[in-house]
Amino acid sequence: MASARPPPTAILTAEFTFDLELVLLTLFLVSLVVVGIVVVIRVKRWRTESDEELVPRIDHYRALLEQGILAPEEFERIRKHLEARPVSAVPSGLPSSVPSPPSDPTAFKPAEPPPT
């Protein structure tokens, strides 16, 4: 009169198999992607900081002149050197592929489509 069924917990645990190799491989791949993202973010931050530090500004040298650290003759020599640099040597905020805006915004003319 008693039925010979197994307890319900035995049925549930028998269907589930824990694959440790699959779990470890998944954790490894996820951690590899996270490390890659962190490296890309830090390299971008490092490049933008180093670009800003390399651009000499006349204001910096003027402040040194006002503090008496820099001689007026040396300041003039640095100013002439910075003014003589080509414009392409000074990095700008826009990439080279982006055209500069027109000086007269009312003179905007859309590009003509190529002939077919």
Topology, element by element:
Layout lengths: L7 H8 L4 H35 L3 H10 L4 H13 L32
Helix pairs in contact: 3-4
Number of strands: 0
Helix content: 55-70%
> Could you tell me the radius of gyration in angstroms?
33 Å
**Total helical segments:** 4
Can you write the helix and strand succession as a string? HHHH
Q: Estimate the strand proportion.
A: under 5%
Low-confidence stretches: none
Describe the overall structure.
The protein has 116 residues and is an all-alpha fold. Among the domains are: 22-54; 56-85, no CATH class. It contains 4 helices and no strands. α3 (58-67) packs antiparallel against α4. It is elongated and about 105 Å long. The mean pLDDT is 75.
Note the main attributes of this structure:
mainly alpha; 57% helix
How is this structure best summarized?
The chain has 116 residues and is mostly helical.
